[in-house]
Design a protein that fits this description.
Tyrosyl-Transfer RNA Synthetase, binds adenosine monophosphate, globular, Rossmann fold, mainly alpha, single chain, 3-stranded parallel beta sheet, binds tryptophan, 5 strands, 14 helices
Length: 330
């Protein structure tokens, strides 16, 4: 049995990139393993959040996990902030993480902007250290994430080993990133060179897991593509970022591959392909979106799931902190 740990930030709504890059892989791995899937609300406040929106987002994310197929009886679903040990361990790990390691993190550079070195918050800078704490606290062995988080998981490994060296114990195991599926990096529907992101301005750049069938069809219809017909092989998509993205989405959703999708659509135009893609997206997303709405109508029900998840997580986290504190000399 493998201990699997991952989280998603409680900012805005989830999109199909989060689903294909992360959530769907969690669903596939939940049985026969021990999983802790949290809602990263501490990470969310590394950029300003409206408190009432944050509160709602945490619940909506929990509902989305369940709607996407995560079984709350099997998996501990909880809000990160309800297990204070995440922050405690992050401090200890921060004390042995060299600034040089953090300076290499590309996400910080992207999020902090060009004056980031002076203006970004310490939390945004320390973001990957908190991520390391999130996983090491539970001795997580596998970390299923999308491609953009790979660098952070690699840092987690370095931090685990740095702890072991400092305290001369073989205590933490270095967790492995699990980046799987056809669509580890889903791109914006407006610009095939940019990652699909929750925070991009245009809602037309992404498909939200809460979009209804009409919205999905319209977004796919308006998605940027190009004038050429679909090619025979994935290699020919290399310089066609938007086409590549749409074909990747199709392959991932159909449970096959880009090559398989092209076998079906080679020579066809986007006006033939897009309606079929829209159908497939609707088939996948619409049931999730309906279920999220149902679950959100019963806030108490969601709170019970979150509370149970917190209790389960705390048992493991408290034991780790007892051991860590003893090693540190507290
Ligand atoms: P975030 O929305 O940044 O909290 O990301 C939550 C999870 O979704 C992480 O595992 C990310 O790597 C993954 N993810 C985010 N955006 C994408 C994307 N455009 N394509 C694939 N995976 C993604
Ligand atoms: N930073 C991750 C993201 O934006 C979310 C996250 C927080 C996470 N802590 C984690 C993912 C620990 C995996 C493990 O996607």
């Amino acid at each position: 049995m493998t201990r699997i740990v991952s989280g998603i930030q409680a900012t805005n709504r989830l999109h199909i990139g989060n689903y294909l890059g992360a959530l769907r892989n969690w669903v596939d791995r939940q049985h026969g393993n021990e999983c802790l899937m949290f809602i990263a609300d501490l990470h969310a406040i590394t950029l300003p959040q409206d408190p009432s929106a944050l509160r709602r987002n945490v619940r909506e994310l929990a509902a989305t996990y369940v709607a996407a197929g995560i079984d709350p009886e099997t998996v501990a679903i909880f809000a990160q902030s309800t297990v204070p040990a995440h922050v405690e361990l992050a401090w200890i790990l921060g004390c042995l993480t060299p600034l040089g390691w953090l300076n290499r993190m590309t996400q910080f550079k992207d999020k902090a902007g060009k004056d980031g070195a002076d203006t970004a918050g310490m939390g945004l800078y320390g973001y990957p250290v908190l991520m390391a704490a999130d996983v090491l606290l539970y001795h997580g062995q596998e970390v299923p994430v999308g491609d953009d988080q790979k660098q952070h998981v690699e840092l987690m490994r370095d931090i685990a080993l740095a702890f072991n060296r400092r305290y001369q114990q073989d205590y933490f195991t270095a967790p492995e990133p699990m980046i799987g599926g056809e669509a580890t990096r889903v791109m914006s529907l407006r610009d095939g060179t940019k990652k699909m992101s929750k925070s991009a301005e245009s809602d037309y750049s992404r498909i939200n897991l809460t979009d209804d069938a009409d919205a999905i069809s319209q977004k796919i219809r308006k998605a940027k593509s190009d004038a050429s017909p679909l090619p025979e092989s994935p290699d020919e998509l290399k310089d066609r970022p938007e086409a590549n993205n749409l074909v990747t989405l199709y392959g991932a959703l159909a449970g096959t591959s880009r090559a398989e999708a092209l076998r079906e659509f080679a020579g066809k135009s986007f006006s033939d392909f897009k309606p079929r893609l829209a159908e497939l997206v609707v088939e996948t997303i619409a049931p999730i979106s309906t279920k999220v709405k149902e679950l959100m109508a019963d806030e108490d029900g969601i709170d019970v799931i979150l509370r149970k998840g917190t209790e389960r997580a705390r048992v493991i986290a408290d034991q780790t902190m007892d051991e860590v504190k003893a090693m540190v000399g507290f």
